[in-house]
Amino acid sequence: MGPLCRRRLILLALILMLTAFVAHRPTAGEVPAKPFPLASTLARLDGWHLIGQTPLEANVIEGLQLDDYAFLSYARGGDLVSLYVGYYFSADKVGAPHHPLVCFSGQGWELSDVGHAKFRLRDGRQLPVAVMTASRDVDRQYIVYWFQAEEEAASGPFGQKLRLIRQRLLHGGEQSAFVRLSLPAGERSEEECRRAMEEFVRAFYPTFLTYIQGRPA
Amino acid sequence: MQAEERHENRRIDLWLALAVLFALVLAFWPAWKSLVGIWSSSEDFSHGFIIVPAALYLLWRRREAVTRRPPRPSWMGLPVVLGATLVYLFALLAGVWTLAYLAIILALIGAVLFVGGWRILRECAFPLFLLLFMIPVPSQIYTYLTAPLQLFVSQVTAGTVKLLQIPVYREGNILHLPGHSFQVIQACSGLRSVMSLLTLGLLLGYLTLRSNSLRTLLFIAGLPVAIAVNVVRVLAMVLALHYLDLDLTAGEVHTWFGLGIFGLAVALLYLLRGVLAKWDRSAAAG
């Protein structure tokens, strides 16, 4: 190796040491745990009655890398909505939730009417969501889900990742969540199911935001 | 006198190379740490542990070709290294780990080009390419791509079980047998062993075949082999449960069973390589 190569090796080592110095600077790190569990925050939703809570087994919590979760059922009139929220405090876990398109098929559900929609919230904002109908034997469920990145929602995991990158770069935001709602569809039309779901989301989302912000509901 | 000077120069070169290696590991330490965490916790990417030693071994095999002629450093390497470090720092800040892993390989390419030049980069091309296989495919993408294959495996297995007159009812990846239901794999998971077998096919082809098209064929063969051994795996689980009341899905027996199935996959790939090697020889002789 000649003197030219040696000089370049020295320059390379200096560049890499500088990179190491910047890379090892302390970062914001994880968001501390919330003062209230998610399930108790969501126990009261305007106009909806909590009728059940399903605890997840330890191996499921571990498999999904959950930091907090809520698996609750609500009723209003003839409507019955099941809510699942998997919540993550650090951005490292943004890819942890399983995608419903994979999981429902893996559990033997036939999927139809798969698409996207926008639900109008009480404050006039639009919430982007993914919708589908899942059928298995005589069971037919209308499913709505989205991926949350701090206070922003996306109907798919890629959009969530992009939003979380932006949140992290601009505000140091780390939190993410996966939200899934299901409604027994029976013989009801897709439009009827959608209306019932939109009503539920209007009651749910503001309370959910208080949890993200770390405020009491 | 000249011999002493040569010896001294070699010593300096060695120390400089070690310093660069140390700086490379230190600079990318958070990414290495994250990679090792994924390799040790995910069955889909545990083959990552063998990639770096395999790449180093391949480099060692090519040491004569690399050192045959003196290096002709290229300035083109400098912007590549600088670009890689910037991409890496952005990836750390934004929490995009896949980008951070790719930046390691990009920095290595730049470093080889900067110090050794284009000829040496060409000589190191395959070991550097192999490093791509240490990078875990993001889990949601991996599952999305391989879940249909897992469903296919479950369908074929359930069909075969029915042919054996064993009553079975399938719901996706869940098989219901009389008195027992079990998930042949986590219902939401993709096909196991795909990445490991693709990597193995790639290495085996590179080391033992000469024709690039046959090497590619062996690499692609990793996919059907993964499907075939997964069918055997699930079928063996069902048969063991039905006839022997033995649950192969949990405990120590599960680990040994998994190793046995992977051994079968390796044997299948090796068998296929043997067939391809015959074509390879005839093509070379022709």
Structure overview:
The complex is a heterodimer of chains A (217) and B (286). Chain A has helices spanning 3-23, 38-41, 58-63, 100-106, 157-171, 190-213; strands at 49-53, 68-76, 79-88, 110-120, 126-136, 139-149, 152-154, 176-184. Chain A is α+β, with helices and mostly antiparallel strands. Chain A has a single domain (31-213), classed as Protein Transport Mog1p, Chain A (3-Layer(aba) Sandwich). In chain A, strands 1, 2, 3, 4, 5, 6, 7 and 8 form an 8-stranded antiparallel beta sheet that branches. The longest helix of chain A is centred in the last third of the chain and has 24 residues, at 190-213. Chain A is elongated and about 80 Å long. The mean pLDDT of chain A is 90. Chain B is mainly α. Chain B has 2 domains: 2-135, no CATH class; 140-280, no CATH class. Chain B has helices at 2-27, 29-41, 48-61, 63-67, 77-94, 97-116, 118-123, 125-130, 139-163, 194-208, 212-244, 251-285, and strands at residues 169-171, 174-177, 180-183. Chain B has a 3-stranded antiparallel beta sheet with strand order 1-2-3, with helices on one face. In chain B, α9 crosses α11. The longest helix of chain B has 35 residues, at 251-285. The radius of gyration of chain B is 24 Å and the shape is elongated. The N and C termini of chain B lie far apart (54 Å). The model of chain B has no long low-confidence stretch (mean pLDDT 89). Classes of the chains: A alpha+beta (217), B mainly alpha (286).
Briefly characterize the structure.
By secondary structure, chain A is α+β, with helices and mostly antiparallel strands. Chain A contains six helices and eight strands.
Main β-sheet description of chain A: 8 strands, antiparallel
Biggest interface pair, counts: A-B, 45 and 52 residues
What is the average per-residue confidence, as pLDDT of chain A, rounded to a whole number?
90
Q: So what's the oligomer here?
A: heterodimer
Q: Which CATH-level-2 architecture of chain A?
A: 3-Layer(aba) Sandwich
Structural class of chain A: alpha+beta
Q: What's the helix-strand series of chain B?
A: HHHHHHHHHEEEHHH
Helix content of chain B: over 70%
Q: Looking across the biggest beta sheet of chain B, what order are the strands in?
A: 1-2-3
N-to-C CA distance of chain B: 54 Å
Low-confidence segments of chain A: none
- Tally of DSSP helical segments of chain A: 6
Tell me about the largest β-sheet of chain B. 3 strands, antiparallel
Q: How many structural domains are formed by the residues of chain A?
A: 1
Q: For the record, what CATH class of chain A applies? A: Alpha Beta
Indicate the radius of gyration of chain B in whole angstroms.
24 Å
CATH third-tier fold name of chain A: Protein Transport Mog1p, Chain A
- Count of separate DSSP helical elements of chain B: 12
- What are the secondary-structure elements of chain A, in order, as H or E? HHEHEEHEEEEHEH
